[in-house]
């Protein structure tokens, strides 16, 4: 993915208020704090807060993606403070001479301009060549970047109960983001009219010029690189085709989703300008703890309180599941802490079927006994000793 040109003018770390070596957790924490403060729902009519909200969202989308963050850091480092110079002509304002010209970096290292663009005459791409694909005309590929760009990906969060996350559910999410204008349907043109092909660039979005041995392509100033002109802009969106609005999306949460999992909703992110495709919306799911159940993958785990007599004599006990209850047989002589498995009564699987229910028995000791129960326990203890049973026979050896 070629880096976006505006990266050279944006400091995403400053937008989020974090250091350049901030961890992913620090970036997420800073974003959530700022997003809560700047959200349009909390600042109705505040255009400054709305603009900062968009900048913060964009910064987070880049810095939270390891590949994008690496590319952004490398691009910023390469261009920071005018780090390329040579022949009295600043980079990238212009290059004297041909592809064999050697330039010097501010660190004193030399590089050949042919190597910078990849291949050095060998015809192979490489080095930093991909970075300049969107700026310089290399085999016509730059025309691809002139079209209206896809909207940015967005991220939101939702919190579910343990049981809803396990069996799946549908939740409504309120999202405030740039969306296609409902008046012009994203075209940017006044209803009843349409954009026309820009005559200056013939719809390519770029105009070309030659300087020395190089051919440069730069965004067309008449259409701002879009390839089209709008003579009568839509008054609702000022010709952008996009308008910030609140909308409700019903999101289907599949069964078995786990805490922290991201669900992708294709095309539900920020709208692309002038009819370009929308980005995606990612929903981060948080799952509340349950007082009865826990999980181990697709297996459902439960701790079952039992009496001493149920373990000694055996019993069938009713155990809760996600869809009712099931009778679990405790064999006579079961030890405290043993786990019993009930097949197919765990968390549903997307491909069909379900995991297992794991029932761990735990002795519950009565805090108080009446006289009859106390006498019965004494009699049992005496019978236990008479039978030769010693619970600590092998202990400590």
From TrEMBL:
One matching Pfam family, short form? DnaJ
Q: Where in the cell is it found?
A: Cytoplasm
Please state every residue range assigned to the domain named CR-type. Answer: 168-246
Question: Would you tell me the Gene Ontology cellular component terms?
Answer: cytoplasm
Q: Please give a single GO biological process term from the UniProt record.
A: protein refolding
What segment(s) does the record annotate as region Disordered?
Answer: 39-70, 133-158
Q: Where does Zn(2+) 2 bind?
A: 198, 201, 220, 223
Q: Which SMART domains match?
A: DnaJ
Residue ranges with Basic and acidic residues bias: 49-58
What cofactor is needed?
A: Zn(2+)
Zinc fingers (CR-type) by residue: 168-246
**What is the superkingdom listed in this entry's lineage?**
Bacteria
Recorded hits in SUPFAM superfamilies, A to Z, give: Chaperone J-domain, DnaJ/Hsp40 cysteine-rich domain, HSP40/DnaJ peptide-binding domain
Q: Which GO terms describe its molecular function?
A: ATP binding; heat shock protein binding; unfolded protein binding; zinc ion binding
Cited function: Participates actively in the response to hyperosmotic and heat shock by preventing the aggregation of stress-denatured proteins and by disaggregating proteins, also in an autonomous, DnaK-independent fashion. Unfolded proteins bind initially to DnaJ; upon interaction with the DnaJ-bound protein, DnaK hydrolyzes its bound ATP, resulting in the formation of a stable complex. GrpE releases ADP from DnaK; ATP binding to DnaK triggers the release of the substrate protein, thus completing the reaction cycle.
- Quaternary structure note: Homodimer.
Protein name stated in the entry: Chaperone protein DnaJ
